[in-house]
Structure prediction request, 665 residues.
Amino acid sequence: MKLLDSAREGLRRDRVFDFMLPPPNFSEDLDTRHGPILYVEDVSVSFDGFRALNNLTLYINDGELRCIIGPNGAGKTTMMDVITGRTRPDSGSVWFGQNIDLLRLSEHQIAQGGIGRKFQKPTVFEHLSVFENLELAMASDKRVWPNLWFRLTGEQRDRIDEILQLVRLTDHARRRAGALSHGQKQWLEIGMLLMQNPRVLLVDEPVAGMTFEETERTAELLTSLAGRHSVIVVEHDMAFVRSIARTVTVLHQGSVLAEGSMDAVQNDPRVIEVYLGE
Amino acid sequence: MLLQRLLSHDRGGQILLVLLLAVMVLVPVLNLAVPADSPFHLSTTTVTLLGKYLCYALLALALDLIWGYCGILSLGHAAFFGLGGYAMGMYLMRQIGDRGVYGNAELPDFMVFLNWQELPWYWLGFDQFWFAALMVVLVPGLLAGIFGYLAFRSRVTGVYLSIITQALTVALMLAFELNSMGFGGTNGLTDFKEILGAPITADSTRVALCVASALMLALAYLLCRAIVTSRYGRIVLALRDAESRTRFCGYKVEHFKLWLFVFSAVLAAIAGALYVPQVGIINPGEFKPLNSIELVVWVAVGGRATLYGAVAGAFSVNYAKTWLTSVYPEAWLFALGALFVLVTLFLPKGLVGVVATLRQARADGSLQRNWQRLASRFGVPTKGEQP
Ligand SMILES: Nc1ncnc2c1ncn2[C@@H]1O[C@H](COP(=O)(O)OP(=O)(O)O)[C@@H](O)[C@H]1O
Ligand SMILES: [Mg+2]
Prediction:
């Protein structure tokens, strides 16, 4: 029976093989007239029978700063994996605006389309300089051939300098990224996201391993980004969440447990039970 | 201008190109112009040996490009070298004409021996040099393209990728050993007479082939250098270190790997094509897994991700091999294994890394200090010592 179902799923007529799909057309403006920029609906993911996401439904508004909290293993990283195309859900739908179906796109297309992502473990190109890290992340033609002949324009150089300033790495521009401190790597990665000019930033545990001062500056940076970008932050650090959050979503066992202002969420008896029960 | 841009900050490359230029000038002079009884005369045997090493160096360069810069450890690069060699061998075979043992102008000797009546279709065209040259590039390039497309699309990486590249070369070896394949079976292709109308064993031909190999190596070096210094090269380096980060920056990683792999395979094939007329034979032994592994050792010994390190490694290991196999023929495999273990454990950056460390130490004076400490311990007076 299960076999039959999976065969049927594989032969669904509305979904051809991924590589046969026409490339997405991001040039037509993203349709966010109804408010949300990201629609995650009824998404389920299981790993070997274990349900990491369980009918997760979530809407993110254009320009919003949203915090997502939840105990370890709640499925926060998996949710980001689904949105960015790394994990294909078993069921459900994920739309970018009203017109782009993210489940039909691969990672690089989603990234080019304007969804940037910072990993839980800071990931930068260790053997390249800070400047080169930003240069590679920059929104530009990402195909093979043009990159063989690529030369930085003055405008692009200015853009990199601007971001260097924003993430406070101007003095380190020529250093190898591998030689940066943990906090600086986190910042560099955020800088790399910004170089992509994304509409949506997914930021997974940005202040893990940061000093108090670095945490404060990160909070400042992320709040300043909201408005121009939609920002989704996953974080464990409650003080940090409190300092930036307007709306908080609590995930638990792969679905939304509560959603609302920080105060409302913290006083929700179900949330208290989950966190105390941990 | 372009040369300057490619070779600034590349001391090793500058030295390499000067040496190659010297080879191109000195080899013809010392072999052809200097009389044989002069102490400065370069024997034709040495010229051929040098030419062979230059081909190995080109092969090592090809491997360094994908292993050092992109992290793809191909254990089957000899396959592309061998295919390039066979394409050239087929041309040389057709040049024999009716000078073979059986005197058959239409068929190579081994086909006559097998009682074949006509030339198989895939041998057609190989009597033309331009066609053979095209096939040298096209066949291995296409194979690498198909293989790489399938492997990279399914996201095979690391050890698994290495194993399937090894499987590729083993499969080719077994196929080329079959008489029915029409490539001369285990004996391969040999007894060549002429290349482009010139007798293949003549001194001038040997010199020309050696110079051509040096020229090709220089060209390939510059091309590789152009690739690794471009933004494409930085993307390749980035995906070596953090593949998913690169994907999430919007790059279609598979394409970047694929083109580098194909280019590297083509370089290996050209090396093979230059190699065959110099050694005078190509047989399925060239596809042996061991050959690909030796190649990996050359690059590891020289030092990865510098390009010139691969060339240095190819020369030094092969020189050691030539010497050792003439003194203790049985010892070579053990020496090779030991060399690999030692380099992996103690010299992760290879010979190039040793040189860099020494230079660094000399620059900051620590070499001298260490030397003095050592000297004073053994009571040897040194110049810089304080009274
Ligand atoms: N690739 C995977 N294979 C198997 N299990 C996984 C995989 N990724 C995540 N999981 C499991 O899914 C659950 C949710 O993980 P994750 O999304 O990383 O949680 P969070 O980020 O909220 O801590 C965890 O129990 C984890 O073990
Ligand atoms: Mg997580």
In short: The CA atoms of residues 137 and 266 of chain B lie 6 Å apart. DSSP finds 16 helices and four strands in chain B.
